[in-house]
Amino acid sequence: MSGYRGPMRVLSGIQPSGGMQLGNYLGAIRKFVELQHQYECYYCVVDMHAITVWQDPEKLREQTFHIAASYLAAGVDPNIATVFHQSAVGAHAELAWIFNCVARLGWIDRMTQFKDKAGKDKERASVGLYTYPVLQAADILVYKATHVPVGEDQKQHLELSRDIAGKFNHDFDADDFFPLPEPLIKGPGARIMSLRDGAAKMSKSDPSENACIFLSDDSDVIARKIKKAKTDSEPLPSEPKGLEGRLEAANLVGIYAALSGKPDADVLKEFGGQGFGAFKPALAELVVEKLAPISAELRRLEADPGYLQQVLRNGAERAAAVADPVVAEVKEIVGFLP
Ligand code: TYM
Questions:
Q1: pTM score > 0.85 for this model?
Q2: CATH entry 3.10.129.10 includes domain 9-191+304-334
Q3: Candidates 20, 153, 194: which one to mutate for ligand 1, based on the most atoms within 8 Å of Cβ?
Q4: Which of 4, 21, 103, 166 lies in the 20 to 30 Å Cα band around 274?
């Protein structure tokens, strides 16, 4: 974190571009819950990132509530952590513009997520999708966040945030004005793969409806998706080494391990030698056991949009009280008149 001496702060965000899925839960939200007791935490619903690809406005509002409700249902306490939607705090967009002028084209050109999302037809992708990681850097640094809990797919974006912070500090001779934020990625669940393809990450936008488990899925749907999960025909090995090259098997064991809190080796001690006919029902039972209380709470909260609105408004006020002075200082550093 270089010589930065400010307070330790955590920021992270999830896009309201679809339902909350198991990868978001294991890779991100579970860490949000743990961290709120150790640090000052800011958890936002990144609606401005979501519109980098087309979103139906009515659905976007619903999904913003859904992601906020999922934070709370999983255990984020809005009286401890600050929960808000990104578009309600104008400082993110203001800082993003200044960062657009700090970040270099060559840096953004290297971002693999843009290449994946834009596909072959990049001429038709939005400009926002291209500068997406610059806005992400602004989300983080507008709170001078020092730690960012994310899944593994966000590693490159976090490196870019550090580069932008470092270049800003250097260009304006503003030693350690911004911290170099540390990604918090490690741990089981940092990379959950699709149930249909062990080489693709689990994603809410996967076209195959059986690829992804949503927090809102009921127990029958979860059991069906796991039953249909792609596997090979070998029994499970009794040691993690035996999972090498068996992407789908490794993913299912990894999900079991992440949810049970046991290392892969212990899971394989229990299930090694058994086929998927035995392992899949045990996995389905565990997923249902862990997700059912969260999805029940999620449904309860979603039925009360008035409460969610209140949480988001309060959160936005608290967030702006931290972010606005940082942007005011940045403007002065850059040379804008007050
Ligand atoms: P999003 O909505 O795509 O993902 C939200 C979080 O979930 C994690 N994640 C996964 N983790 C493990 N396995 C998976 N299959 C999986 N799929 C998703 C992501 O790594 C992420 O932590 N760009 C961010 C949103 C963002 C952000 C920020 C994050 C915007 N501003 C500032 C941190 C700080 C994203 O990927 O959203």
A1: yes
A2: no
A3: 153
A4: 21
